[in-house]
Each structure stands twice: as structure tokens, then as C-alpha cells.
Amino acid sequence: MPFLPTERSERAVPLAVTEDGLPLRHVVIPSGLIPEFVKRAEPNTRKGIETCGLLMARLTRNVFTITHLLIPKQTGTVDTCATTHEEEQFAFQDAHDLLVVGWIHTHPQFSCFMSSLDLHTHASYQAMLAEAIAIVCSPAEEPSHGVFRLTSPVGIETIVECREPGAFHPQ
Predict the structure, then answer these.
(1) Of 48, 52, 133, 146, whose CA is between 20 and 30 Å from 32?
(2) 3-class DSSP state for residue 39?
(3) CATH code for position 30
(4) What's the confidence (pLDDT) of residue 151?
(5) Is residue 19 in a domain?
(6) Closest by alpha carbon to 92, among 76, 71, 66, 65?
């Protein structure tokens, strides 16, 4: 993990920490990743259908660097997307020795935010990897994209414990 020396002691402090002070490793997002994803999602975006992808990385020197964007087989609607054929995703991940560090998806008809469904989806990623991120792309809105994670421990605990019925609810 990258560290900066403190001015008062020889002790090092992590560059990134969770809200409760636990260290986080950095996640490097290549500058071309979001534009490339938006370009590949364009056919669905024109139809008002969400598209999702997986952010896959390698861990080197305690830094996650996203090296692959996998757009798996999927189904989508105006306000949902879901991957299918997960065994193909795992095979790709295993063959290339990659770690999933999050996901990316479009909101073709909505602004850039995390819906309750998005929060629940992301909680499963972040429960497995504290550094997991979610990127939301809203091509027709400003801002056109955002990078999100749940706060820890309060945000992730709230979502994991949520038992509200239905895909979309205030929480």
C-alpha cells in the first residue's frame, strides 16, 4: 500500500482509508475506460436500455490497476441490467489471472446516481473487496459519469441489512 511519511514521526500513514480508518488500496482507472465503455454501450443507449460491464484488475505493489473491461452477455431494460452466462465471466477472469474490482453501467434515461437497486448490487462487490467501485455513466446528463462506493461501515451495513421489498425503494 502506498504510504506517506508523517511530519511528527517515522510512522507511515495510508494514503486512503475507509470512513472508520481502515486502509484502502488504490484503484487505478485508465483514462480511456469510461469513453470506451460509453462507445460500446451506445447501441443500447440509443434504445434506452442499460448496459453493464465488469472492471477487472491486477494487483501489483498493493495497487489495483484496471486492465480489462468485460462486457458480458446480459439482459437490460430502461432501469436495469443483469449479466447472464456467469461461467463465461469466471473462465475469462481465471484465464487472465484477474480480480473483479467493481462494475460500470449506464443510465441512458436518468442522471448519474446510485439507485437502490444499484446500491444493493454494489454491496455484494464491496462486501468481497473493500476497494470495489461502481461507475455510473449518464451520457445525456451532466455530470456524465461518477465513481461510487458505499461508506464503511455504516453504508455497507445499512444496505446489506436492508430487507425492503422491490427493486427500487428509498433507503
Answers:
(1) 48
(2) helix
(3) 3.40.140.10
(4) 94
(5) no
(6) 71
